[in-house]
Amino acid sequence: MKWRLPEERPAEPPTGFKIAHPMLSQDGSRAGFTGVSLGGALPYEVLDEAHCVYGLRHRAPHRRCDCGFHCVHDRTAAEAMLCTAEHRTAVLLEVSVLGAYLRFELGFRYARQRVRTATVGPCSCGSVAVALADAGWGRPGWRALAASCAGCVRGRPSVSLATFARLGGEGLRVRAVRAGGGAAPSGGDLPEGLGVSELVAEAALLQARLDWFQTQLARLGEPGERGTGQG
């Protein structure tokens, strides 16, 4: 007698929570994420389908494999993973569980997902993030990003939170929070479309870059940077 798991047919896709690193494609045209554990080598887009990380041909999720997207039921459980040193630069995702899934005590393993909301923590300096900037690592064809305030962006490749949402598409929303989890002021919840929040963030990034370049030019013009002509 073949053992079968009970089947669920919910009226709406279940909701789950997970953490991931935001990613930007090499040409800057697509936004996505990469996981923090088993599937970390395979970046995925906002709406995507899971594949077996071991290269096997079965469809994910397979009962005798670890493949498939993973998430937990409880938001607090996902937020707790952001406390570890290696996950401090990750973001919190709220996802819709799509397609076939396996339900566990703590969460789901499933075939397809749509990332609905990405919650970005503060910059490493403690200020509210206005951008996602080059984190200094990545995957082939993808650059990892981390939360950054306008003052810390400087000359690093970066995108505003709303630009990241627009590049991700599929209705993705990106919101910034203060240190400790409080909502950021003045439009911290950024929709896909271009609006005042995006213009403010872009202006802040441009000003930060301008300030940085002016500082570099000032250093080049200092007397100590030029030769005195003495032999």
Features:
single chain, 231 residues, 12 strands, elongated
What does this protein structure show overall?
This protein is α+β, with helices and mostly antiparallel strands. The protein is 19% helix and 33% strand. Strands 1, 2, 3, 4, 5, 6, 7, 8, 9, 10, 11 and 12 form a 12-stranded mixed β-sheet that branches. 35% of the residues are buried. Residues 191-197 and 225-231 have low confidence and may be disordered.
Secondary structure: helix percent: 10-25%
What ranges have pLDDT less than 50 throughout 5 or more consecutive residues?
191-197, 225-231
SSE run: EEEEEHEEEEHEHEEH
Number of helices: 4
Structural classification: alpha+beta
Report the biggest beta sheet as strand number plus sense, adding barrel if it closes.
Answer: 12 strands, mixed
Summarize the structure.
The chain is built from 4 helices and 12 strands. The protein is α+β, with helices and mostly antiparallel strands and 231 residues long.
